[in-house]
Amino acid sequence: MQLKFLGTGTSQGIPVIGCNCKVCLSQDPKDTRFRASVLITTEQDRKILIDCGPDFRQQMLMNKEQNVEAILLTHEHNDHIIGLDDVRPMIFKNKKDMQVYCSKRVADEIKLRFPYAFAEVKYPGAPSFELHEIRERFQILDAEIESVEVMHDQLQIHGFKFKNLVYITDASFISEKEKQKLRNLDHLILNCIRKENPHPAHFILSDILRLDEELKPKNLYLTHISHHFGKFAEEQKQLPDHIHIAFDGQEINF
Predict the structure, then answer these.
(1) Which residues are CB-contacts of 205 (< 8 A; sequence separation ≥ 6)?
(2) What is the DSSP letter of 30?
(3) Of 58, 185, 218, 225, which sees the most CB atoms within 10 A?
(4) Do 251 and 4 form a contact (C-beta atoms < 8 A)?
């Protein structure tokens, strides 16, 4: 299987509009970050998207990706779902509703934000979604998936485990029960919004280093990164060899 980072940035992306900091002005493409999203390619070459934010269309075009068959949603914040309307070309191409997997709370939000997708009489060209509620263990296409419940401040959201890889974004707390799913992984992907100054809804680097010591993954990737973290080339050198600052377009085979 393969995971491709379509976006590794926070809700503002990088560069941030109107910001003249060294990260936002950087010419290094690894410092340019779309909103957080990944694309899973299964063993049968099927495509599962995790989160569909406002950059979805551009992410697909830049990565020369042509299809998505199912979408997993971590939670309902706009930077993770507001691109759902842009999956219409795949709905039309495949001639069937897009399969969307999420919690009931997120499903209710999708119906509120995209009411035209659920109208009894739809206008021509409207998207169509079939919503499925996430369970602790479930299957999408040929992929077996285990959900990981984490807290995003006071909001319970989902991470996802495929084989010995876990993808978690927008977390600020992981319970001891859920940590049992994260020990001794080949690949653990966690959000890390910045190096310093605690954040109520996101891990910062000191949190990540503690989790790394506790969970002992073979490889740890940082995503959902803001311009306050620093430039990729400078900060990567300061980290242990097994901790990687993820960048847009990066691929993990697992």
Answers:
(1) 192, 194, 195, 196, 229
(2) G
(3) 225
(4) yes
